[in-house]
Design a protein that fits this description.
The complex is a heterodimer of chains A (463) and B (168). Chain A is of the alpha+beta class and 463 residues long. Chain A is built from 14 helices and 17 strands. In chain A, the strands form five sheets. In chain A, strands 9, 10, 11, 12, 13, 15 and 16 form a seven-stranded antiparallel β-sheet that branches. Chain A has a four-stranded antiparallel β-sheet with strand order 14-8-7-17, with no helix packed on it. Chain A has a two-stranded antiparallel sheet with strand order 1-2. The longest helix of chain A has 22 residues, at 3-24. Chain B has 168 residues and is mainly β. Helices cover 13% and strands 40% of the residues of chain B. Chains A and B meet through helix 1 and strand 4 of A and helix 1 and helix 2 of B.
C-alpha cells in the first residue's frame, strides 16, 4: 500500500472497526432480521466507505485495494485524458469518464466532471464496494446504466447470506457469477460509446456475441468466471461462519497501476498468468529456393472477448518475429526496444492488433471525444464451434512473411502494452501527464506465443 | 509511526471483537428481495451439468480394453483452474506397466480448445508403473476431458478419458 493511501485508509479502518464493534458487537452475531435502519443517511455514508467493509471482509478488501477498480480514479492516464477531454470540449465531456471511474463521487454530487478528484474524499473514488453491491438493476448495455438501491442492502452472489447485523444482505443474480446476468453488471462500464457515436470499448458486446455469452449453452462463462477466481473460504470474519465459494476481487485484466499502489506486483503477476494462456500461436517455416515463407497463426482461445479488448484504441498488441541465419538477421518485424513507441518503427511488416479511431472528418485521432468511427484489427473470440453454424467465424488469423535466405532460426512472440507509448507521449506533450509515469508502463510477453523454429526440429511447424 | 499506531489499535479492536463473540448463531437469513423469482432458468451457468465427471475423493480410475489408469496423486487434490500436476499408476493385466510412452491432452469440448501446449508428455516416476505429468493449466472453469494416451511400445496403444469439472 502506498504511504499516502495507507495513511488515509488506516485511521478509517480503525474507526470502522470500532463502529462495528460498538454497533453490533461482532461481524455476524446480531439478531436475525435486525439490520440497522437501512435508510439512515449516516449508515449509508458508512457503507459507502470501503474501509468500513475491511474488518469483516478483510481478504476481499485487500484484493479490491490492489485492483484497477480501486485505482480507477487515481490512474494518472485516466486523469490526464479526462483533463484534456474536458479542456478540448469546453466541458461538454461532462461525466462521461468519471461516471465509471468514480461513480459514487458522481452520484453523491462530489464531482460532476472528474476535474476536482484531488479534492474528492478517497472513499468515493474508484469503483467501490458500495457501488457494485448496491446495484439493483441494469438499465442499458453501455456507459454505466446501473441503478443503485438506496435501501442499504448489500447485494451479493451468495444464497442465504448470513445476517451481519451491520448491513442487510440479499442474493442477487446480478452478483452471482454463475448467472449470465452478472455479466450485464460488469458490461455496463466495460462497454463504452463515445459522445460522437463510435462504439470505442466493446468488451461486453464481444462477449455477448461469443460462445462464452450463449445463455443455456455448456460453453457459457461469465466475466466473473475468468476474472474472479474462486476459493473455499468464509466470506466474512466470525466464528462458525459457513465455508462458501468466495471469489477474488482483484479482478485482473490488462491494465496496471502506474504509481505506487497496494499489491502492484501481485496484480501484474495475475495479469501475466491470464495473458499467458489467452492466445494460441503456431509458427511454420516453409523453405524454398532462395528463402522461406514464415507463417504465423494466432488464435484467441481464452479471452472470452476479443484480444485485445476494452480501450483497444489505446492498447497495442504486436508480433515480434525474427529470422536469422547464423548471426545474420534475414528478417525482422516488431522489434521495438523497451520504451520505444511502435509508431516510431520504420517497419512495413508490423502486425499490430488494436483499434484506430477516426473523427467526423475521417481523420485519425487519439481523442475518444472526437471518435465518430473506428477501424479494428483484433483477434475475435469464438462465436460458434462448428463451421456449419451460421454464427461461425474463423478465429485463426494467419499472416505469411517472405524471408530471403535460408533461416537457421526463427523466433516469434506476441507482446502487449496496455497503453501505447505514442498515446502516453501525446498526453505528456499536451502537458496533461507527468513524464515520470512513462517508464512505469510494462510490456507483457504472452508466454504461449513464444516459439522457436530451427531446421533440426525436422518439422515445418511448432508447436 | 502512524501506521504502527493504527495497527496496534486494529489489533486491539480485533481482540475486542473476538471477546465480544465474533461468531454466528448459524442462522442464515435470506433477504431475497424477489431476486430468485426474477431469474430465468437458462441464465444459470452449469458447464458440467450432464457431463461424465469423475469424482476426486477418492481419486478416480479408468480402464480401457488393455490398460487401467489410476490417478494416485493430484495437485491440487481437486482439479482447479490453473496449474495441475498428476501422478498416474498404469497397469496392464494387473501388473505395473513400465517403459510406456504416456501423453496427456486436456480439452474443453464446449469451447473446442485445449491448453497451451495441447499435449503433455508424462515422465516415469520413482515407482514402477507410475508416471508424472504436468503442470498443465486448466485455464478456465467448466468441463474438461483429460485424455491419457498409453503406448506400451509393443504395438498396443489406447486412450482413457477422465472427466473433470473445474469450478474456478
Amino acid at each position: 500500500m502506498s504511504a499516502s493511501r495507507a495513511e488515509a485508509v488506516a485511521p478509517r479502518l480503525v474507526l470502522a472497526a470500532l463502529a462495528l464493534a460498538s454497533a453490533s458487537g461482532a461481524c455476524a452475531d446480531a439478531p436475525a432480521g435486525a439490520p440497522p435502519d437501512a435508510v439512515d443517511p449516516q449508515h449509508l455514508a458508512q457503507l459507502m466507505d470501503p474501509a468500513t467493509c475491511a474488518p469483516c471482509h478483510a481478504e476481499h478488501y485487500r484484493e479490491w485495494s490492489g485492483s484497477m477498480h480501486a485505482y480507477a480514479a487515481d490512474d494518472p492516464v485516466f486523469l490526464a485524458m479526462n483533463a484534456r477531454g474536458q479542456r478540448e470540449t469546453g466541458g461538454a465531456l461532462g461525466d462521461f469518464c468519471v461516471s465509471c471511474h468514480a461513480p459514487m463521487a458522481v452520484r453523491t454530487g462530489a464531482t460532476t466532471d472528474g476535474t476536482n478528484l484531488d479534492e474528492v474524499p478517497q472513499h468515493l473514488k474508484g469503483v467501490t464496494c458500495y457501488f457494485c453491491h448496491s446495484v439493483e438493476a441494469v438499465e442499458g448495455s453501455h456507459n454505466n446504466p446501473l441503478r443503485l438501491a438506496t435501501d442499504g442492502v448489500m447485494r451479493g452472489g451468495l444464497r442465504e447470506p448470513v445476517d451481519s447485523g451491520f448491513h442487510a444482505s440479499a442474493y442477487s443474480p446480478l452478483h452471482d457469477r454463475n448467472r449470465m446476468e452478472s455479466s450485464d453488471l460488469c458490461g455496463s462500464c466495460h462497454d463504452i460509446v463515445a459522445p460522437p457515436g463510435a462504439h470505442i470499448e466493446r468488451t461486453f458486446h464481444e462477449w455477448r456475441g461469443s460462445v462464452f455469452g450463449r445463455a443455456g449453452s455448456p460453453s457459457a462463462l461469465t466475466c466473473g468466471g475468468c476474472h474472479m477466481d474462486g476459493r473455499d473460504a468464509a466470506v466474512a470474519a466470525g466464528a462458525d461462519m459457513p465455508i462458501r465459494r468466495a471469489h477474488s476481487h482483484a479482478m485482473p485484466g490488462v491494465d496496471v497501476a502506474l504509481t505506487e499502489w497496494p499489491q502492484r506486483d501481485e496484480q501484474r503477476a495475475a495479469i501475466q498468468a491470464l495473458l499467458d494462456t489467452t492466445v494460441r500461436a503456431e509458427l511454420c517455416v516453409w523453405p524454398h529456393a532462395g528463402g522461406a515463407d514464415v507463417q504465423v497463426l494466432l488464435e484467441n482461445v481464452a479471452a472470452g472477448h476479443s484480444f485485445p479488448s476494452g480501450a483497444a484504441q489505446d492498447r497495442r498488441a504486436w508480433l515480434e518475429l525474427v529470422a536469422e541465419a547464423d548471426d545474420a538477421v534475414l528478417f525482422e518485424t516488431g522489434r521495438a526496444a523497451e520504451g520505444q513507441p511502435l509508431a516510431s518503427l520504420d517497419d512495413p511488416h508490423l502486425w499490430v492488433l488494436g483499434d484506430k479511431m477516426r473523427d467526423a472528418a475521417g481523420q485519425p485521432t487519439h481523442d475518444f471525444w472526437e471518435a465518430a468511427s473506428y477501424e479494428s484489427e483484433l483477434l475475435p473470440a469464438a462465436t460458434a464451434l462448428s463451421p456449419l453454424d451460421p454464427a461461425w467465424i474463423d478465429t485463426h488469423v494467419i499472416r505469411t512473411f517472405g524471408v530471403v535466405g535460408a533461416p537457421s532460426r526463427v523466433e516469434m512472440r506476441l507482446k502487449l502494452r496496455p497503453i501505447a507509448l505514442d498515446v502516453i507521449d501525446d498526453l505528456i506533450a499536451s502537458g496533461d501527464l507527468d513524464p515520470k509515469h512513462r517508464d512505469a508502463l510494462p510490456t507483457f510477453t504472452l508466454k504461449a506465443t513464444e516459439l522457436v523454429w530451427t531446421p533440426d526440429l525436422d518439422t515445418p511447424c511448432v508447436p | 509511526m502512524l501506521m504502527r499506531s493504527c495497527r496496534t489499535a486494529l489489533i486491539a479492536v480485533c481482540f475486542a471483537l473476538t471477546a465480544a463473540g465474533c461468531e454466528s448463531d448459524g442462522h442464515e437469513a435470506g433477504h431475497d428481495h424477489g431476486a430468485e423469482s426474477d431469474v430465468k432458468a437458462d441464465t444459470h451457468v452449469d458447464a458440467c451439468g450432464g457431463e461424465d465427471v469423475d469424482t476426486f475423493d477418492p481419486l478416480p480410475s479408468r480402464s480401457g480394453d488393455h490398460f487401467t489408469v489410476t490417478l494416485v496423486s493430484a495437485t491440487p487434490a481437486i482439479p482447479d483452474k490453473g496449474d495441475n500436476t498428476w501422478e498416474l499408476a498404469i497397469e496392464h493385466g494387473g501388473a505395473a506397466l513400465t517403459g510406456a510412452t504416456v501423453t496427456v491432452k486436456p480439452w474443453m469440448p464446449a469451447h473446442g480448445h485445449g491448453t497451451n501446449p495441447e499435449t503433455f508428455a508424462a515422465t516415469p516416476a520413482a515407482q514402477d508403473g507410475r508416471y508424472s505429468v504436468g503442470p498443465f493449466n486448466l485455464l478456465m472453469p467448466g468441463y474438461w476431458t483429460v485424455t491419457v494416451t498409453i503406448d506400451d511400445g509393443q504395438g498396443t496403444s489406447e486412450e482413457v478419458v477422465f472427466g473433470v469439472c473445474v469450478e474456478g
